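Working notes for the structural subgroup meeting. M.R. asked for a predicted model of this chain before we commit to crystallization trials. I am recording the input and output together here so anyone reviewing the notebook later can reproduce the run.

Input as submitted:
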Amino acid sequence: MNNEVTERQAVRVMRPESPRQAVSFAKRFQAPYIAGGTWLQPSCERSRQWPAQLVALNPDWPEFRGIQETEAGLSIGALTTLDELAGHPLTALYLPPLSGLLNRVAGPGVRHLGTVGGNLLAGGDLSALAFALDADVTVVGGKGSNRQPLVRWLQDRPAGDLLRSVTVPDCRGWRVSLEKLGYRERFSPTRATVVCVHDGYQVQLAVCGEGGPGRLMVTEAMLRDEGIRELTDLEIVVDSELETLGWYDPRLRLAVRRMLESGLMEVTRDP
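Returned structure, recorded in C-alpha cell form:
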C-alpha cells in the first residue's frame, strides 16, 4: 500500500494553457492525457505502474465540451461527460436508445466523471455505436486540427494526437439497436456491446468489448448482397469475422452472434 501511494505521489500533472500546448507536452514528455481519470486510474492501479507525467485537459477549451447540431450532424465534445451525453435533449432527439445504454455504464460516479473521448479511446461502450454510425473526429495534432473518420484515426493515431470532438451524422429516423453483455459485477469491464444500425438503405454493424472494437464490414457486405436468407450462413460469416478481429473466445463469439441476430431482426423488421 505504501509503495502504491508513493508511486501516485510521484506523478507530475502538467496543466497546459491550450490544446496545442497539451499536444506539445504529450509528445515532449511522452505523457498520457487525463480528464475524468475513470479509465486511467484503475488500469494503472491494476498494473501498479503510474506514468511519471500526466497532461491534464481543460473542459473549458472551445469545442472540447458540449453537444450541438451542425451541418455535418451532431457534434459532441470529447470532454463531455457520459452523464451530460445521456441527459441532453439532442441525444434523445438523435439517438433515443443511447441514454438507456449509458445508464448501464459502470456506476453514477463513473458516469459523472468519465468522458466521451476517454470511453472511445478505451474501446468502451460508445465505440461500437460510433463505428456503426461512421462517426468522424476532429483532432488536434502537431500541425493543427483536422477531421477524419474515427476508425481510420484509431488505426493510425500519431502519438500525442488530442481528440477534440466526435461528430455523428444526422441519424434521426434511423433504426438503432444497442445490446450489451456485462459481468455481474457492476464495475467490471463490458464483455461485449453490439450495435446494429439501419439508415433506410443498408445495415451497418459494429462491436466492442473483450475482443476490441470493430466494424463488421464482411457481414455487412453479405447482407447487402444476399440479405438474411439462411441464419446458418450468417453465423459462419459473423463467427469468422469476429475471430479475425480478435474475438478468440468461442463462447463469447456465440453470445455476440445471438445479439447480432436479435439486433438485425429489430432494425430490419417491417414498420
